[in-house]
Amino acid sequence: MATSNSSNTLSSTFYLTGIPGYEEFHHWISIPVFLLYLVGIMGNCTILHIVRTDPRLHEPMYYFLAMLSLADMGMSLPTMVSLFRVLWSISREIQFNVCVVQMFFIHTFSFTESSVLLAMALDRYVAICHPLRYATILTPKFIAKIGIVVLLRSSIPVIPLLAHLAFFPFCHSHVLSHSYCLHQDLIHLACADIKFNVVYGLVMLTVLWGMDSLGIFVSYVFILHSVLRIASHEGRLKALNTCASHICAVLILYVPMIGLSIIHRFARHSSPLIHIFMAHIYLLVPPVLNPIIYSVKTRQIREGILHRLLPHKN
């Protein structure tokens, strides 16, 4: 019986949802959404290209920035195909196995982005609190190890959560609340005891996001303590200014992330438009704003972009 249920689940077809009540405007809505995706992809690809090709940017801070751009793209790109298939009225159908793969990438890279932000907080802590040891602590080899650990830490805990979905029968509605698959959305369609997925998912979120946010908070406590010991006002502002982009990146990831989790767990019966709006902010805002923030606030990135656009200008 378990094998039969698993087989039926794996071959199940689910139906994605666009924006309820605005189906006739989907083609128009797709235009600004497409432009946002385009800005995000071009911005992150530009960051990656500049960091790779400019020797002046072969430093820990920019390696972590490249990781952040990869995480941004990994979190948003898996949603593009299904989203525009819905908005362009091509098809609302998505197979269970495709849905699970999409969930894996979305949730894995969401955790990856959070962990990269923790690594960037560590980078700022070492740069401000131990500047003389910066190059010896954050070596390229150590940064590569951090990248591997971050990816494994973000992906492995997600696997048992998604693998357990294969044993759920979906005997009622197969209509999802979004135009892409999220774990917290899919499990509420199961006709089975979902306690394991709810508890495991909550523990995973608490541990991973909790550790990352706590680590970021502790890093900034030490950074602030070190900055306040700088004698000159200009020196304090200069030190804090190096953290401004990172603080913005933390806020634009964590605020929508927490908001979406709260809505799914405590406001499931609220307007579907709220769920859809928060989900799109969660997946679209960080990839779009992060490259813009770092391009505006980081002089080296800004100069690298201008050098590529105006290569003959001195």
Give the mean pLDDT.
85
Strand order of the largest sheet: 1-2
Radius of gyration: 21 Å
Number of discrete helical segments = 13
By CATH, the topology is Rhopdopsin 7-helix transmembrane proteins
The level-1 CATH class: Mainly Alpha
CATH architectural category:
Up-down Bundle
Q: Biggest β-sheet, characterized?
A: 2 strands, antiparallel
Summarize the structure in words.
With 314 residues, this protein is mainly α. It has a single domain (2-309), classed as Rhopdopsin 7-helix transmembrane proteins (Up-down Bundle). The protein contains 13 helices and two strands, in the order H-E-H-H-H-E-H-H-H-H-H-H-H-H-H. The protein has a two-stranded antiparallel ribbon with strand order 1-2. Helix 12 (272-297) packs across helix 13. The chain is globular. This is Olfactory receptor. InterPro entries: GPCR_Rhodpsn, GPCR_Rhodpsn_7TM, Olfact_rcpt, OR51/52/56-like.
Task: Set down the secondary structure blueprint.
Elements: H1 2-10, E1 13-15, H2 26-53, H3 60-76, H4 80-87, E2 93-95, H5 96-129, H6 134-137, H7 140-155, H8 158-163, H9 183-186, H10 195-228, H11 233-266, H12 272-297, H13 299-309
Antiparallel strand pairs: 1-2
How do you describe this structure in short?
This is Olfactory receptor. The protein is mainly α.
Quick tags:
single chain; Rhopdopsin 7-helix transmembrane proteins; 74% helix; disordered N terminus; transmembrane helix
